[in-house]
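Title: Comparing notes on inverse folding

I've been comparing how different people in this forum approach sequence design from structure. To keep things fair, I'm posting one structure and asking everyone to reply with a full sequence. Here's the target:
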């Protein structure tokens, strides 16, 4: 159901095919933007203004959205699919910093002075869709919307808290605990409840899990197989079923 503001927008030059298509595209973007928590309090007019500043981009599996040293000039919002963010060590080993699911923002370092990318963003699914907005347009939009500025600060604060928690885990916890914590977090944040069980649908390889948890692929395989053997989880190539998340250990 279209809101009053959306209906009003649809009445503008509806006889002009190009303008009508642009308006309908903007309304489609608004439907997605409403699902991004950062914009949840926006009016339809604000949503429409923001949507006009954005571009819709689609990527294929294993395609880079950006690579290290690319110009840092865009901010992205993931709308469909899954991506991973990371960087390469001095020995060219991949280190995964974050797994992003739909309605997450990424690449926001562009608006905080980053000139060239330090990280990479790589597509994990067959088709990923993002909204992109130039750092200059987004910065200007933020400067005119104090609520968005506060939401952005909260978002960055949450990311910092997660980064600190992950760092503590790498320092304090053993490999098995880190892998189990990874499973629990993804189940709680992105899993689907199936009766008393939790189903995680994913596009990660065991090497990806290893790169995220600071372990080896062999360790991930060993821990996953042990959890399966003790009937704590069941997994296939693209899914993991956790029998009881509270007793997973």
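Reply #1:
Here's my take.
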């Amino acid at each position: 159901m279209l809101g009053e503001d959306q209906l009003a927008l649809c009445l503008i030059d509806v006889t002009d095919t190009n303008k009508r298509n642009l308006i309908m595209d903007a309304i489609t973007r608004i439907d997605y933007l409403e699902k991004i928590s950062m914009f949840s309090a926006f009016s339809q007019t604000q949503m429409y203004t923001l949507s006009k500043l954005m571009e819709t981009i689609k990527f294929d599996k294993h395609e880079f959205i950006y690579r290290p040293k690319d110009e840092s000039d865009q901010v992205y919002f993931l709308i469909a699919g899954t991506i991973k963010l990371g960087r390469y060590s001095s020995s060219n080993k991949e280190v995964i910093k974050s797994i992003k699911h739909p309605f997450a923002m990424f690449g926001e370092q562009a608006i905080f002075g980053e000139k060239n990318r330090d990280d990479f963003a790589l597509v994990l699914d067959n088709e990923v869709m993002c909204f992109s907005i130039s750092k200059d347009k987004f910065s200007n939009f933020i400067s005119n919307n104090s609520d968005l500025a506060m939401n952005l600060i909260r978002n960055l604060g949450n990311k910092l808290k997660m980064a600190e928690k992950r760092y503590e885990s790498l320092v304090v916890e053993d490999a098995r605990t880190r892998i189990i914590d990874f499973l629990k977090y993804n189940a709680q944040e992105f899993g689907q409840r199936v009766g008393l069980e939790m189903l995680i649908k994913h596009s990660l390889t065991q090497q990806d899990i290893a790169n995220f948890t600071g372990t080896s692929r062999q360790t991930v395989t060993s821990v996953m197989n042990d959890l399966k053997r003790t009937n704590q989880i069941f997994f296939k190539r693209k899914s993991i079923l956790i029998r009881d998340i509270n007793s997973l250990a």
